[in-house]
Amino acid sequence: MGVDLRQVVAGVLTLTMFVMLIHMIKRDHFDAVQDKLPGTTEDVSFENSNFDTTHVRKNIGIWKGDADELKPCWVKPSEDNVEQTEGFVTFSLTNGPEYHISQIADAVIVARSLGAILVIPDIRGSQPGDKRNFEDIYDVDVFMKSMEGVVRVVKDLPARISNKIAAVKVPNRVTEDYIAKHVEPIYRSKGNVRLATYFPSINMRKSGEKGDADSVACLAMYGSLELQQEMHDLVDSMVERLRTLSRKSDGQFIAVDLRVEMLDKKGCQGSDSDKEKSCFNAQEVAVFLRKIGFGKDTTIYVTQSRWDGSLDSLKDLFPKTYTKESIIPADKKKKFLDSEDSELEKVIDFYISSESDVFVPAISGLLYANVVGKRIGSGKTNILVPANIPDSSASASSFLSHYVSKKNHFAYSCYC
């Protein structure tokens, strides 16, 4: 009986394809994988060690899933309850988005209380002449629409008014009583005011009874500011890069607010005791994260602008530690990182910290307080405050932010 040559060829091809398939499966599961993401300035290497499933099962509780996203429960106030006047309230946003949120809230509360017209603010950096438009960072249409029926808003101050403005300082979380005593008399006398918010303390705890001003503050802080499209897309792309780097932890990553220059400032000095300590360096953060159970494959984003040698101790324990310069797309680096303006970098840090699976504030300050507020609304309440742990290990839940464990953040007045 003759052999059909076509059957022989088909058999050989089938066998060859089967061998190739086995080889591909074996390579994908067991070979070392090394990726370099487009646009990074350093190689992104994945560990050669096999995936330790026992370790994952042990630590799965650390990556506490998001809680249910909360719904805004503030009542939008009406303009009808306020006597309207013809003066203007102007102000500038300064020092980064953690301050912008509070500055916006104070300005809206003052303008509404006076029945005045609010002028869209400009945004000013730390250097003289460092100035940009509101719409360079935020969506101006979203802001104006959110204020409809609450306070009148215009994009520009009329030229005839520009030299007739009285400067007034107001404390963060300004009250209606303060406005009546210290701002309204000046407004009535001069006709227009320019606000500057100062921060006598960093306190975002919710107050006792909820009033009309609280509803206005809730709307202004959590319902009026959205990033303009380019900024929004950039932050999204950087978050996705971090998730890509986090394959061994199911795409989850930690954001650590750790800026080396802040550790030398007054607020971080003289706080060495455990009860008073409000700032932690890279080594202390690394030891803390290890002791509560995070493994070496954990991906960490650090808010430090450029890599600093002091971060090496964090990278020694967590090799997948990155700053923004190593994950930003190459075509965005010149515009957002290589300029003299640090405002855009602060925006990136704030919003990545708001989106991470775990947030660790190594520095206690307004960024911590206002990132927590933003995370509460989206259900991302896995916020772990560092501490010096004397034992070899501890439960992560013991270090949950008091803003969350006690539900005493102002944001809990705004969401339900």
Automatic annotation (TrEMBL):
<dbReference type="GO" id="GO:0016757">
    <property type="term" value="F:glycosyltransferase activity"/>
</dbReference>
<keyword id="KW-0812">Transmembrane</keyword>
<dbReference type="InterPro" id="IPR024709">
    <property type="entry name" value="FucosylTrfase_pln"/>
</dbReference>
<keyword id="KW-0472">Membrane</keyword>
<dbReference type="Pfam" id="PF10250">
    <property type="entry name" value="O-FucT"/>
</dbReference>
<comment type="similarity">
    <text>Belongs to the glycosyltransferase GT106 family.</text>
</comment>
<keyword id="KW-0294">Fucose metabolism</keyword>
<protein>
    <recommendedName>
        <fullName>O-fucosyltransferase family protein</fullName>
    </recommendedName>
</protein>
<keyword id="KW-0328">Glycosyltransferase</keyword>
<keyword id="KW-0119">Carbohydrate metabolism</keyword>
<dbReference type="GO" id="GO:0006004">
    <property type="term" value="P:fucose metabolic process"/>
</dbReference>
<dbReference type="InterPro" id="IPR019378">
    <property type="entry name" value="GDP-Fuc_O-FucTrfase"/>
</dbReference>
<keyword id="KW-0808">Transferase</keyword>
<keyword id="KW-1133">Transmembrane helix</keyword>
<feature type="transmembrane region" description="Helical">
    <location>
        <begin position="6"/>
        <end position="25"/>
    </location>
</feature>
